[in-house]
Design brief:
The protein is of the alpha+beta class and about 170 residues long. It has a single domain, classed as GIY-YIG endonuclease (3-Layer(aba) Sandwich). It is built from six helices and four strands. A four-stranded antiparallel sheet has the order 1-4-2-3, with helices on one face. The longest helix has 18 residues.
Length: about 170
């Protein structure tokens, strides 16, 4: 087999093992949110039953969780100006929570999950505290890609695809 391919496969195997052996931490704890690494990472979000819900990759895990996820779950009137509900997991989680609130006949196409100027959805959560309580029911597991691994372009995307194939999380459809 090709030595370069062997090297990539061996790293992916090691990274995968490190990722799944990392104990998930609650997304609702401020000490967790304040101490996330700033760097490239692959992450898994689990529900309260520790079932994987979403796998993602990011160039900055701290920003992804604190800004993209947390901010996007806030009511449009409380988001930092210009923030959208564009993150896949937060948009799908909002739809799920909205469905719980207004019933099973909810059709997500009836609502615009756009920016605060055009958002036409009922407020799912009313405050940052309510967002924290919602996130307390979810857990984060992540693996930070070592900076020296830049010799393999997009290794985080390869690892993300591998983890999605193995865990089959519902929000990565």
């Amino acid at each position: 087999m090709n030595k370069s391919l062997d090297k990539v496969l061996e790293r992916l195997k090691n990274y995968y093992n490190e990722l799944i052996n990392f104990d998930p931490v609650s997304l609702g704890k401020s000490e967790v949110l304040e101490n996330l690494p700033i760097g490239e990472a692959v992450y898994v979000i689990y529900d309260g039953n520790k079932k994987p819900q979403y796998v993602g990759t990011t160039g900055d895990l701290e920003r992804r969780i604190n800004e993209d996820l947390f901010q996007n779950l806030l009511p449009p009137s409380q988001r930092a100006r210009g923030r959208r509900t564009g993150h896949t997991f937060s948009s799908k989680l909002l739809r799920k929570e909205l469905e719980k609130k207004i019933g099973k006949h909810f059709k997500s196409k009836e609502f615009d999950f756009g920016d605060e100027e055009t958002c036409k959805i009922p407020e799912v959560v009313e405050s940052a505290e309510e967002v924290r309580k919602l996130l307390e029911t979810y857990f984060l597991q992540y693996f930070e890609i070592p900076k020296e691994e830049s010799d393999i372009p997009r290794i985080s995307k390869l690892l993300e695809r591998l983890v999605i194939m193995i865990l089959k999380p519902p929000y990565n459809d």
